[in-house]
Amino acid sequence: MRIVIDTNVVASAIFFGGRPAALLRMVITRTLSAVATDEIVDEYQETVNYLMKKYSEKADEFSLIPIISAMEMIPASDNIHICRDPDDD
Q1: Who's near 56: CB < 8 A, 6+ residues apart?
Q2: How far is 73 from 35, CA to CA, in rounded Å?
Q3: Which DSSP state fits 3?
Q4: 3-class DSSP state for residue 58?
Q5: Model-level pTM?
Q6: What span, in angstroms and rounded, lies between the C-alpha atoms of 85 and 24?
Q7: How many other β-carbons are positioned within 10 Å of the β-carbon of residue 12?
Q8: Which end of the chain lies in a sparser environment, N or C, as judged by fewer CB atoms within 10 Å?
Q9: Nearest of 65, 67, 58, 72 to residue 25 by alpha carbon
Q10: Phi, psi for 72 (deg, rounded to 5)
């Protein structure tokens, strides 16, 4: 099974730890398979950059580089409409 990790989960892991951090550790160690598109990675980066300004003292041990390196990059498809929020499709 492959998963897509929501940006809020990545941000929560980096800045607050807990279960989201445990999930990212599983991705980094390749215990869990995660996929992302270039657009998702851009959203991760924008969100982390924004939150670094607010919560730099809370940043956990994670960096985006090992997280993204452990993910399988896939092409984006714009013909999927399954979420209530179109930004999440």
Answers
A1: none
A2: 6
A3: E
A4: helix
A5: 0.83
A6: 24
A7: 19
A8: N
A9: 67
A10: -85, 125
